[in-house]
Amino acid sequence: MEPAEIIQHSGGVIGASWLMIALPLLGAAVLLLGGRKTDKFGHLLGVAMAVASFVVAALAFIQLLGFAPGERRRGVELYDLIPGIAKVGLLVDPLSISFCLLITFVGSLIHIYSIGYMAHDPARRRFFAYLNLFVAAMLVLVLADNYLGLYVGWEGVGLASYLLIGFWQHKPTAATAAKKAFIVNRVGDFGLSIGIFTIFATFHSLSYQGVAEGMAKGGSIPATAIGLLLLLGACGKSAQLPLQSWLLDAMEGPTPVSALIHAATMVTAGVYLVVRSGPIFQATDTAQLVVTIVGVATLLAGAIIGTAKDDIKKALAGSTMSQIGYMMLAAGIGPAGYAFAIAHLITHGFFKADMFLGAGSVMHGMNDEVNMRKYGGLRKVMPITFVTFFIGYLAIIGFPLLSGYFTKDGIIETAMEHNAILGWLAVLGAGITGFYMSRLVFMTFFGKKRWEADAHPHESPAVMTWPLIILSIGAIVLGAFLILGNRFMLFLSPAVGRPEELPSFHPFSTTGLATLALVAVGVVFAWYRYGSAEVPGVAPRGSFLTAFARRDLYGDALNEALLMRPGQWLTRLAVYFDNRGVDGLVNSLAALIGGSSGRLRRIQTGYVRSYALSIFVGAAVLVGAWFVVGNL
Amino acid sequence: MNGTIQAPTLEYAQLAPMLVVFGAAIVGVLVEAFAPRYLRSAIHVPITLLSLAGAFALTIWQVVKGVPTKPAAMGAVAVDGPSLFIWGTILVLAFVSVLLINDEDHFVAAAAAVPGSAEEEQALHEGAGHTEVYPLALFAVGGMLLFPASNDLLVMFVALEVMSLPLYLLCGLARRRRLLSQEAAVKYFLLGAFSSAFFLYGTALLYGYAGSIDLAKISAALGVVGGQETLLYIGVAMLGVGLLFKIGAAPFQAWKPDVYQGAPTPITALMASGTLVAAFGALLRVFWVALGGLDWNWSPVLWAVAILTMVVGAILAITQTDIKRMLAYSSIAHGGFLLVGVVATGAAAGQNSKALSAILFYLVAYGFTTVGAFAVVTMVRDAGGEAWHLSRWAGLGKRSPLLAGIFAFFLLAFAGIPLTSGFFGKYAVFQAAVAGGATPLVIVGVVASAVAAFFYVRVIVLMFFSDPAADGPSVVLPSRGTAAVVGVAVLATVFLGVFPQPVLHLAQNAAQSLFIR
Amino acid sequence: MTTHYLVLSALLFAIGGVGVLVRRNAIVVFMCVELMLNACNLAFVTFARQNGNLDGQIIAFFVMIVAAAEVVIGLAIIVTIFRTRRSASVDDASLLKY
């Protein structure tokens, strides 16, 4: 089934959906420009703007549901930026509204959580300003009805991410991590921008509608090239191989940031891009194949990295990579996978934000200690954090009837049907997930206390625990709600299309049982290693495999050898060429212009009579020229 | 019919904006004559600002009521779409410039006193000031309103003089650097009078050719009257001299740098924005209404003028060391870019309303940015008054980052960087020119823009990447008026750069109704 | 025969124009400009006769008034600079250049 036509819409909440973007942007502007005067109420304003944005999103969602499914793609035209080339418009359709609800809802909860988490930070106002800025930019990204708008949002979230990773810029590690994230993302953005140029050159339009129409019309379209370029952009933003290395370092940012940006929303923008560009990817098997391969490779790599990390946030970051790999895999399959990709994205947004915030709560109680080897037995002192984290844990490993069970299983089943090798690799990934997540939970909440002497763990305040509780409820029920009866697939189909034959949910399929069995093996093995046994306070040397995983699979070394070194050579070469060749040319040209300027300005003698002469001569020339032209 | 004189009919409603401005100017003269000295300023400022605001409201009212389709005042004045758009622009720019003028220490205490004499000392001591600047400015604004709206050449000549004469005086009234200021006034006056004599002689020849000075009748006579093409050619060329002089197009640009530099900065702002807008309005009207129907193509000459103007403006600006002078050359270059648009209106595409709307948009965008830039110049001062020399601006970014940032923003807008108003102005004009078949001209324009970008960026580099001079200028705390001017200019530059559509739309509507004949 | 008048007017205009270029005294320069305006007037009146309507003669009156206004302004400016510089030579006023 093809996506529906876009209907121009005005009035109602959808017509005013720009408010979703404008409100947090206003919040950011007030907080950044208002300076210290807004210190007192800054956090409250930030929360209010995020919540208000959610309310608008929810109302727009309700209005959207009022239309027949075929009429649920509503375009909202704001203004013509460059007549005939770039219109600024929004597209409110099932896909974008799903993202809006996720971003504003989880975003609001994380704003609220941050009131408690950042309570003692002197720069709390600035933090909320950046968070608001992020929400606004992310909404631009998903609401734009064209690639240019998407790019603006894409760079906007990149900026917000940079600012927030380096929020504690007094820490050199944070400053470096922020730069690394920015630079690695540049590589991806480079691909994206060239992809967008190619789109414009091919279709003479940047709107999704125009691209879809152009694809339908056919002709010679470099779909594979565009698809791969867009994928490069997606890899950068979503930390997929080979541009994954920044995400682990990004954990230097405050934990709410890791939860919102580097788990629930921003890093999933790549998946959004691939799904939104469906018409292009569906026309090219090669690009789709590459997307699925990237997805599978990343889901395994992320999982392996997750097994070896002792830093609780880095372990979670590895897991994020891995889960986005699942989404990417599904998004590469086509209409059959889109709904599962987005559904998993939403449930993952909930349970991963839940766990990140839980990790934040643990750190909050443990003097910002992140090393899991110094945790242990925390379930008794932090009961709410433990219960909510445990729910998130069950959801991610795919414990039956929780969110992850439905959405991840959907992806694995679809992948299995698409290509058995990919399917079995995805099953293997699920097993590893079971192991490393269990390891994390056992090391943190079970076993003996391995705390530092000065640690006095305690439960976090209500403003931090309530968001955890709400997120964990989502982690329990959302999967079933979305997947059972193909509810989400039908909802999404006007925006992205759907397979001819709707999938049906089989609780006891071979694949499902195999997945469960492997996960169970993983959990038991983790219990044997980390639950029942003593966990050493210092990490043992381990095998070369462990070392391999600890070094992020030598991702940095690889980057260094493959990108940085040749890059440095290239820049050196370019500098040499620039100095000798280009500069020589430019400088002599500049000298020429400068010299002629220096000489020409002598015409301006300062004598009024010579000015009058120039007028007189000019008039004579004008008269003569007119004669010549007139008599031609 | 013979022997009886028919009373002329005047459409007061259509002329109301001008009447308000001229009326307020006359009231200002009376205030000057009868009000005690200490009260004058307090009376002038509200009268001036209110009359400009009132005239603006009347202009808007006119637009809402429906743009007139026939010339007013017995065919002497044409209040049409472009006129109304230009009026609105001029009135807003004039309002903003008057806020700058309101900072009274720009003006000399007693113009008649010899600089440095005891007389001047005394006048300064008494706190005297030339409050005449307000009525003079109003007269000039009134002339600017009439200039682009005049539908016959005599009215246009009178408007030209009404606009210019007060400006000649205003140029000579700077409080500091009075020698330069007076020199600017003399130069501007002599050259202005010289060029308007050309304008008038052109008018006489066209009158001889067509038997009328009415633009529409001249247009009607084209092609009908035979055997007198000589009169037509010389007449049009000389008329062109007068108009191109006001625009500052090469080779008639020589006055601009000297006058812009010497004049009091608020007056420079008024001239660089208001006069330029008015002069382009008049130029378009003459070339469109009177000469639109020429069966021979006048655009090759304008091509040459446009190219020369862009090149001269951009190249000479590079080696300038005085900020006001540099902005003056930049204004010349921008005049050249606008002439590219004028060429497009007459090019193969015929009467191209797209080019017209592009010019109108460019004028608004450039007007606001230039007023803002000169407002910033008034704020950077040292012991001798405003610090004009560029070396004094070194390191300003470190001393007062906000002001330097704003100025850098204006410069980027001049250079036409995206997300500033300058980008869309240039884009619209160049696009219209390409559509009108003037691609080579656009290429020259783009190259000139690139050269121009160099000297804009050079100032930015100077402000932010040089070490401040030890005794560098200080930035004065702006008065409310100046701060408002800078604020309005920044907002307009941002707004037109991000949301150009409303103004572009307005300009398109104005251009659609075209110039009436 | 109106041609003679036109030729005279052109001559006067040219003399005025050349005068502006060659004379140094600001007052004389200004008088040359006035001469150019009067040349225009002559042309207007001539064309009025040639065209057989009165417009040109009326225009001449307007021009005279404008010229008078110009004199007022011009003399004010020239006198001011003369008082400052003790010289009415236009060549002395050349501080602003390049």
Strand order across the largest sheet of chain A: 1-2-3
Structural class of chain C: mainly alpha
Structural class of chain A: mainly alpha
> Mean pLDDT of chain A, nearest integer?
84
| SSE run of chain C | HHH
Strand fraction of chain A equals: under 5%
Helix content of chain C: over 70%
User: Count of DSSP E strands of chain A?
Assistant: 3
Helix share of residues of chain A?
over 70%
Distance between the termini of chain A: 65 Å
What is the CA-atom radius of gyration of chain A, in angstroms? 28 Å
Textual characterization of the structure:
By secondary structure, chain A is mostly helical. Chain A has four domains: 145 residues, no CATH class; 137 residues; 259 residues, no CATH class; 72 residues, no CATH class. Chain A contains 25 helices and three strands. In chain A, strands 1-2-3 form a three-stranded mixed β-sheet. In chain A, a hairpin with a 3-residue loop joins strand 2 and strand 3. The radius of gyration of chain A is 28 Å and the shape is globular. Chain B has 517 residues and is mainly alpha-helical. Chain B has a domain of 221 residues. The two termini of chain B are 26 Å apart. In chain B, 65% of the residues are buried. Chain C has three helices and no strands. In chain C, helix 1 packs antiparallel against helix 2 and helix 2 packs antiparallel against helix 3. The N and C termini of chain C lie far apart (49 Å). Chains in contact: A-B, A-C, B-C. The interface between B and C is large, with 40 and 45 residues.
Task: Give a quick set of tags describing it.
heterotrimer; B: 517 residues; mainly alpha; three-stranded antiparallel beta sheet; 20 helices; 72% helix; C: 98 residues; Helix Hairpins; 3 helices
Helix-strand blueprint:
The complex is a heterotrimer of chains A (632), B (517) and C (98).
Chain A: E1 7-8, H1 12-15, H2 18-34, H3 42-65, E2 74-82, E3 86-92, H4 94-117, H5 124-143, H6 147-165, H7 172-203, H8 208-217, H9 223-237, H10 245-249, H11 255-264, H12 269-276, H13 278-281, H14 285-308, H15 312-333, H16 335-365, H17 383-397, H18 403-418, H19 420-445, H20 462-483, H21 487-496, H22 510-531, H23 544-550, H24 555-600, H25 608-631
Parallel strand pairs in A: 1-2
Antiparallel strand pairs in A: 2-3
Helix pairs in contact in A: 2-3, 2-5, 3-4, 3-5, 4-5, 4-11, 4-16, 4-20, 5-6, 6-7, 7-9, 9-12, 9-14, 11-16, 12-15, 14-15, 14-19, 14-23, 15-16, 15-18, 15-19, 16-17, 16-18, 16-20, 16-21, 17-18, 17-19, 17-20, 18-19, 18-20, 19-22
Chain B: H1 12-34, H2 37-65, H3 81-101, H4 118-126, H5 133-149, H6 153-171, H7 178-210, H8 215-221, H9 229-247, H10 255-262, H11 265-290, H12 299-318, H13 323-346, H14 353-379, E1 380-382, E2 385-386, H15 396-399, H16 401-415, H17 421-435, H18 439-465, E3 474-475, H19 480-498, H20 501-512
Chain C: H1 3-22, H2 26-51, H3 55-85
Helix pairs in contact in C: 1-2, 2-3
